[in-house]
Amino acid sequence: MGYPALMRPSIKKVQASRKERNTRAFPELTVTEKAKLLEDFYPDFNQMVKRQLKIGVTTGDMVPLELADLIEASGRLTPDQIDLSRVAYRTDILIIGSGGGACPTHT
Predict the structure, then answer these.
(1) Residues 6+ positions from 49 with CB-CB distance below 8 Å
(2) What pLDDT, on the 0 to 100 scale, is given for residue 96?
(3) Has this prediction a pTM greater than 0.90?
(4) What does DSSP assign to residue 55?
């Protein structure tokens, strides 16, 4: 199975520039330059799309905005509406192990 027709111009560009790219030396980036590229283009490093959690054992951790909104949102159900003898609920997010079991203890 080939590439879609809309990709053919891009493929031709890559093919036409292959010889030059294979013989060209690219300078190694400095640590600062690499960090700048990551901050500008890689989602995990983009602080503009993250914020600190305000609640829970991970308070202060930086997470994507959407995840923080879900974790910090008020529950849609009240405890008296939940029947734990028959668990069959659909959720937006499932947090397993939200207790302190995985957290290091301070001595």
Answers:
(1) 43, 64, 65
(2) 61
(3) no
(4) S
